[in-house]
Write a structure and sequence with these properties.
The chain crosses the membrane at residues 28-49, 55-75. Keywords: Membrane, Transmembrane, Transmembrane helix. This protein is an all-alpha fold and 104 residues long. It has one domain (3-95). The chain is built from 2 helices and no strands. Helix 1 (3-49) runs antiparallel to helix 2. The radius of gyration is 22 Å and the shape is rod-shaped.
Length: 104
Amino acid sequence: MEREDLWKEFEKSIDLYKFYLDMVLKDMVLKASIFIFGITSAIILYYFSNINKPLIKLSFVLPLIMNAGFTYLCFKGSSFGDILDKEHEKLSEELGTRLFGSPI
């Protein structure tokens, strides 16, 4: 590929990375965190107000499953960021530049 084409591909890759971070961090993770922590705190409040009822400890199953699933999705989603990072490294190597934070 020509150098100009590589720069265009690099710019598109950076724009995709910015979009990914903006969409994931600002929209999805924030909204999901607020929802999950809201449900978890409501169930904990219910637990402490009804602590003497039988089987009340089972109320922690839903928050446990939701938080474990959310943790899994966050770790799985971070692997997509790693793919973009490797692509940036490859393109910067072909362009003869170095990425911020890479060794001298």
